[in-house]
Amino acid sequence: MPDVSVVIPTTGRPSLAEAVATARAQRGVSVHLVVVCDLAEVPTAVAELRDQIDEIVCTGGGRRGSYARNLGVQHAAAGTHVAFLDDDDAWLPGKLAAQLPVLERLAGQGWLPVVSSRTLQRKAGGTPLPSAVPTTLIADGTLPEDYLFRRRQLGVGRQSLPTSTLLTTVDVARQCRWDESLPRHQDWDWLVRVARLPRAKIVQIEEATAIYTVGSPGSISAGADWRTSWDWARRWEGVWAPETFSDFIAAQTLRYALQARDREGVREMVRAIRRNSPPSARNAALAALGLVPRSALERVAMRGSRTVGDSDSLRAGGSR
Length: 320
Prior knowledge:
Layout: E1 4-10, H1 16-24, E2 31-37, H2 44-47, E3 55-58, H3 64-74, E4 81-84, E5 90-91, H4 95-108, E6 112-123, H5 144-149, E7 167-169, H6 170-175, H7 186-194, E8 200-214, H8 226-233, H9 242-259, H10 263-276, H11 281-288, H12 294-308
Helix pairs in contact: 8-9, 9-10, 9-11
Protein name: Glycosyltransferase family 2 protein
Pfam families: Glycos_transf_2 (PF00535)
GO molecular function: transferase activity
C-alpha cells in the first residue's frame, strides 16, 4: 500500500522528467504517482515517462493548476496521504520521510494537518543554492495570511509555504478543494481556506525538502498583473486583519501596478490601503520596488542569496 499519492500538474514541460524522478526516488516511503496533463491528450514528454507514473489523466485542456490538482486528488490511492509537486520543482530524497511522521502524529491527535518545509532555490536550469529558506517558519497557531504577508522580509529569505512542499491527508484535500476559478495565487488561497477548517493545523519543518525553481518559462507568477491579484485580495478585505490586508496590497498589488506604470491601479491600491491600515515599513519598501525592473531585482536577489546564505526569490511571493 503506498504511503503518499503525489499529484503533479503539467502541460508537458521538459522539467517534468526531473520532478517525476525525484518523486520516485523518495527513501523509505511508497508513492502513488498521479500526473495530470492540462491538455486534451497526453503529450510526448509525459508519454515517455509512462513506466515511472502510476496514473496519467488529462483535464481536456486549459483548466489550470487548481482543476488539475483537484482531479489528481480524486485519483489518490486508497489509504494514502497527498503531496503536491509542481512540474518545474524537484524533491530531495528524504522529503516525504521527514514530513510523514509529523503529519501522522498530528492526524493521530485529531488535527487536520498540512505539513510544509524549507526549500533550496535555483534559477531555471541552474544549480540549487546551498542555504535553506525561508528564514522564519510559520509559528503554531499563526494564520497563513499573517505569516505570508505581514511585515514581509525584504528580498532574500522572506516567508513562504510553496506548493511543492505541501503534504496533507486525503480528507483535508477533499474537504478543501483548490479554487478552480483562480488564475493566480492558487496556493495562497488554498492555505488561507484550509486554515479556516475546524481543527486545521499548518506546520513547517526546519529542513529543506524541495528544490524551488525561479523564473520557469511560462510561469504565471512572472507578470505584473495587479488586476488579477486585486480580484483575489478584495474577497478577503474585512476577513483578514486590516494590517495584513494593507501589507498584502502594498507588497503585491501596489507593487504590480507600479511595475505596470498603471496610474489607475496605483490610485485604487492607495485607496484600499487607506480604508484599512498603514502598511509596515517593510511592505512599503517592497511596494517601492515596483519602480525597479523585475529582471534587475531577480539578479540582485540571486546574487544576494549567495552572499548572505539565503535564497528566497521575488517570484510573486512564491505563489503560482
